[in-house]
Amino acid sequence: MASQNPVFIPGPTNIPEVIRHACDIPTMDHRSADFPPIFDKAKSGVKAVLGSATGEVVLFPATGTGGWEAAITNTLSPGDKVLAARHGMFSQKWIDMCQRHGLDVHIIEAPWGEGVPVAAFAEALAADTTHGIKAVLVTHNETATGVTSDVAAVRAAMDAAGHPALLMVDGVSSIGSIPFKMEDWGVDLAVAGSQKGFMLPAGLAIVGISQKALAAMETNGLPRCFFDLRDMLSGVYPYTPPVGMIHGLSVATDMLLSEGMEAVYARHHRIAEGVRKAVAAWGFSPCAVTPALYSDTVTAIVTPEGIDAGRIVTHAADTYGVAFGAGLGAVAGKVFRIGHLGQMTDVMALAGIATAEMAMADLGLDVGLGRGVAAAQDYYRSTHAAPARAA
Ligand code: PLP
């Protein structure tokens, strides 16, 4: 039996009861007239969350990884050049997927903890006078390091270079939680998953597509079948839709939009700030190297030299039944992560901070019981939280 405690992993996130119930609907004939209203409502809700007025949204029965694959296979052709930075586990995995599909990835290496190196992107784009680069990939929120990159600045660099490449953004751990402006930023393909900001179980790859990407799809493409956007956009769902998940998504977007996206962003920022106050009170630092890069959805906390951060995660799970995120890839054992996205309130965050503190104290770290909690409490009290949302 899973613990009844909230989770503090950076996805899947805690599922509000109303969304859990919304996923649990009786079987319906998805070819009947009952399905299109549910489907259309979910898609228009996602469009509003993405900030896309003119684009399309598709919902694959998949996860964020499937969304990456849909983005690249529908709009790029074999051997096409793409520009990407490698600065964490997820940017690395998307690069790996591109390479496995035979794309020529121009990789700009950046230290883990840094964001997308916009100046290096600008240089590469300006140097590409023949427009060989067909797509620019940005991992908006590197979940492995807790780093949020500046998508608007990448768009500005592309515009300054007069570069026509498609802008593809991984918003798996950002969309629905922190500002995402698909149309304002000129994002051509936006990828999300159901299990993070949308507060659903894993199971939907959510992809926003601009008109420019739709046009690219007509002339370009790698082999694809399950992820063919043309089938998905034909007006008929090309296979059996996960109706319960899609119904849940329509309710999730209702919840987000009725809270108001600006309020959702403000809530995430406030909760994240409280977590960061606790981290500072423990005497630790986030993995993100500057405050401008701090993610409001996940904080990766660097533990002191000689301390295996993985032990904190294991101990918290085994002893207190609370899940935190372990370090991944190059930062495995060096960081542990507190996810603070989705259905999260300051009171929930305080429980997570308190548990992390107990686990670290048990393991002999000199964090001082109550120190982080008090710092977060001070911050939350002084910023006058709105009452927690009913779920
Ligand atoms: N991109 C980011 C930023 C992620 O955090 C994740 C998963 O955590 C993925 C992509 C992969 O998504 P999924 O596990 O849903 O396939």
UniProtKB/TrEMBL annotation:
| Lineage top rank: taxon | Bacteria
> Which stretch is the leader sequence?
none
Tell whether Methyltransferase is among the UniProt keywords.
Answer: no
Q: Which InterPro entries match?
A: Aminotrans_V_dom (IPR000192), Aminotrans_V_PyrdxlP_BS (IPR020578), AspGlyoxATase (IPR054863), PyrdxlP-dep_Trfase (IPR015424), PyrdxlP-dep_Trfase_major (IPR015421), PyrdxlP-dep_Trfase_small (IPR015422), SP_NH2Trfase/AEP_transaminase (IPR024169)
UniProt cross-references to NCBIfam families, sorted A to Z: AspGlyoxATaseBhcA (NF045640)
Q: Which organism is it from?
A: Rhodovulum iodosum
- Answer yes or no on keyword Transferase: yes
> Could you identify this protein by its name?
Alanine-glyoxylate transaminase/serine-glyoxylate transaminase/serine-pyruvate transaminase
Names of the cofactor(s): pyridoxal 5'-phosphate
Keyword annotations: Aminotransferase, Pyridoxal phosphate, Transferase
Q: Where is the Aminotransferase class V domain?
A: 28-328
Name the Pfam families for this protein: Aminotran_5
What family classification does the UniProt entry report for this protein?
Belongs to the class-V pyridoxal-phosphate-dependent aminotransferase family.
